[in-house]
Amino acid sequence: MSEWYVMGHSFGGILAVNYAKRFPEKTKGIILSNVTLNMFDSFTNQIQKGSEILGMEQKRIEWNNLEAFMDIFYSNLSKLMEKEVYFQFQYVDLQNKKIVDEIDEGLRSDPIFQQYVFSSAEYFQDFTSLTKQINKPALVISGNFDDAVGRNHHETFKFKNAEVHRLESGHHPYLENQLEFKNAIFNFI
């Protein structure tokens, strides 16, 4: 039976963890790079950080009403985009965003899928609870400057067999700290 390492980045962490939980016999290990396993937690981080950057008073954030929660999120997001500061959540060096934009230029992203995910309660479950059920080795990579998922979001994970690497990067360590990112993965594998 073939096993492989399952890797996820950002929202892909939810997919990777669910795969590893559902198919342990196919999973050799799991590699999570700057992932969210609780979108409420990560988006709350973005709302709070955004309010701080914008000099706005913190609004009371309730997780029990997804529509109201997302209204607050999108309101902050549009103000951050307007002031051209949102991408500071993801990149230490904003030149790296240009690299990602060039790579993504030919892709046809599906805004309908993104809208579905960001409005579906199914994706806003707390998937961190699955981490304590996964017995396979886990590599968790976290950026010291990642405000997209939260600099300390990975501390909520409860893997039984985890190795954590904090890198000097934002949300995209494969661009901003390539050598340490590569070394962490090669050493883990």
CATH topology: Rossmann fold
Helix content: 40-55%
Query: Compute the gyration radius: what is it?
Result: 17 Å
Order of helices and strands: EHEHHHHEEHH
What's the main sheet like? Answer: 4 strands, parallel
Which second-level CATH architecture applies?
Answer: 3-Layer(aba) Sandwich
| Total domain units | 1
Note the beta-strand portion.
5-15%
What's the multimeric state?
single chain
Question: What is the average per-residue confidence, as pLDDT, rounded to a whole number?
Answer: 91
> End-to-end span in angstroms?
18 Å
Using the coordinates above, name the CATH class: Alpha Beta
Shape: globular
Instruction: Tell me the strand order in the biggest sheet.
Output: 1-2-3-4
How many strand units? 4
- What class, by secondary structure content? alpha/beta
Uncertain runs are none
Alpha plus pi helix count: 7
What is the assigned CATH homologous superfamily? Alpha/Beta hydrolase fold, catalytic domain
Keywords: Hydrolase
Protein name: Alpha/beta hydrolase
